Amino acid sequence: MEEFATVQCPFCGQSFDVAIDTTLASQRFTTDCEVCCRPFEVRAECEAGEIVSVDVAN
Question: Is pTM, for the whole model, over 0.85?
Fold first, then answer.
């Protein structure tokens, strides 16, 4: 199941939503900022089909 989480770009500060697969306990993926186009990593932890935490790193 997919849920959306709001993340903030570590470069320009713009916030936007990313899709998180809640069937996975832990995941890491790279996405590009919708505004400045710079790539950054998203790390998510899920439990029982719900998002527990979402962190970003450049």
Answer: yes
